[in-house]
Amino acid sequence: MSEFHHIPVLFDEVITGLAIKPGGTYVDCTVGGGGHAQGILAKAGDGGLLIGIDRDPAALEAAQRRLQKGPGRFVLVHSNYTELDKVLAAHQIDGVDGFLFDLGVSSHQLDMKDRGFSYHQDAALDMRMNPQASLSAYDVVNGYSERELARIIGEYGEERWAKRIAEFIVARRQTGPITTTGQLVDIIKAAVPASARRLGPHPARRTFQAIRIEVNGELEGIKPAIISAIDHLKPGGRICVISFHSLEDRIVKQSLQESAKGCVCPKDLPVCTCGNVPKVRLITRKPITAGQEELATNPRARSAKLRVAERL
Ligand code: SAH
Description:
Layout (H helix, E strand, L loop, with lengths): L10 H8 L6 E4 L6 H10 L4 E6 L2 H11 L5 E6 L5 H7 L5 E7 L4 H5 L25 H7 L2 H12 L4 H12 L7 H11 L2 H5 L6 H12 L5 H11 E11 L2 H16 L18 E3 L9 H6 L7 E7 L1
Helix pairs in contact: 1-2, 7-8, 7-11, 8-9, 12-13
S-adenosyl-L-homocysteine (SAH) binds next to helix 2 and strand 2.
């Protein structure tokens, strides 16, 4: 079995942000290879309990290997964090001392050629974080209309050439299905003008990000999961969320801000009628980002933003 290569991002900042209590109960909603989880259990000690959720079984196997060497108890669950309520109920977990969300894909997923996440390696178009999920990149690229493709690539990839890329994909489909990441990269390269390709990152980066977000429904689950996590926190418990691009960070920021504000009445109402009360206090007004040292050793940290809140 291949090693799980993934350096946890903002590790010290997460451990500090969670303000870990010995003997506490923690939930890592994106446990991955267990890098952060190991640090959490090391601090929570022998009395500590960690619930680790991931929708990728390969990640859970790696987390199992890593966590079994350390202190504390842990339970690993193959699920989506959108099922958080059910997962916690099934394990009779009531009050939680801290939640971590480390959003997006792991370096390991990007590196595993057969998963089809990377535009650097030619592989079948897949990109499913959960290999049992029904929708794959193949279905999106070959099945979506030109309009849908243009919208996804524009919105989720923030790609200015989205319409042209969608047009080229649909034109190429006329000759047969697009089956590999390599074919998709070639189509994108043909669609993006040479002058635009000379500058900036790989021309396929934004489109691949967009298709990955669509395949895995990465954005719609974030807010409900954060709200649900906050509802399960004990007073004084912490929630840490790491995001990797502006679309994610916007959702994280708004979710935490709304929970901190309580009232959601329209601004022009003279008195509050919604009756919502603040549930958290924001620990970070501005997100925490990686320092020079981490940036030099972990490229994945470049776009990472950590936000922390505490349950009232
Ligand atoms: N913190 C981990 C790395 C996490 S990488 C570590 O230190 O090792 C992000 C992980 O989140 C990936 O393994 C991915 O499969 C998982 N993931 C992403 N979205 C998810 C979701 N909605 N539900 C469950 N797991 C998810």
